[in-house]
Amino acid sequence: MKKSLIVIFAILMVSCNSKKEICKGNLYFKLIDIGSFYGETEEKIREFERKIDSFKIDSKTSKDDADIINKFKTIKRLNLFRIPCIRVQTSDDIKLIFLSESEYKKVKSFTLEDLKNRGKKVILELELEELDKGIYYSENIIKVQEIDGQTPWKK
User: Fold this and answer.
1) What residues contact residue 73 under an 8 Å CB cut-off, 6+ apart?
2) Which residues pair with 128 in a beta bridge?
């Protein structure tokens, strides 16, 4: 009984420590972007995971390449390859945000080409939890607003 109470207390302490924050920004598109394999076959996901596992960081690896490899290894460790994700440009940076499927439905219809052609951009307000440095998760998109403007993007 005493051990059960200790385990329950530990779980409550960990869950209470998760900090949620509100994020506001523009839906951001990156033309060449591999953050999630949402909707891909299990075979493709396993193949990509094997490739990630084969990457070694040594003195010849550039800082940019090492950062990319480490980010993918973190995404794999957090088991996020099968989870949909988006990017949001805030006033400070561009956040990689993984979403629950129900929240992803709120934004999946927006495409860079369509928004650019119509001269629109999408402003989002989300409740976020940081899973690891620079990797976030949201189960709550508070607001989705399409307005006139230029959609931010990068090749």
Assistant:
1) 52
2) 21
DSSP state of 27: E
pLDDT digit string, tens, across residues 140-154:
999 999 999 999 999
Cα 80 from Cα 152, distance rounded (Å): 24
Query: What sign for the dihedral angle of Cα 134, 138, 143, 144?
Result: positive
CA distances from 70 to 43, 56, 65, 101, 135 (A): 22, 10, 9, 25, 12
Residue 6: HSE in the Cβ half-sphere, 13 Å Cα cutoff: 3
SS3 32: coil
CA distance 83 to 106: 15
Q: Interior CA angle at 29 toward 23 and 30, to 5°?
A: 120
Cα angle, residue 50 at apex, residues 62 and 104 outer, rounded to 5°? 90
pTM over 0.85: no
Q: Measure the CA–CA gap between 94 and 125, rounded to whole angstroms.
A: 14
Distance from C-alpha of 6 to C-alpha of 120, rounded to nearest angstrom: 53
Band (pLDDT 50/70/90 cuts) for residue 12 is: very low
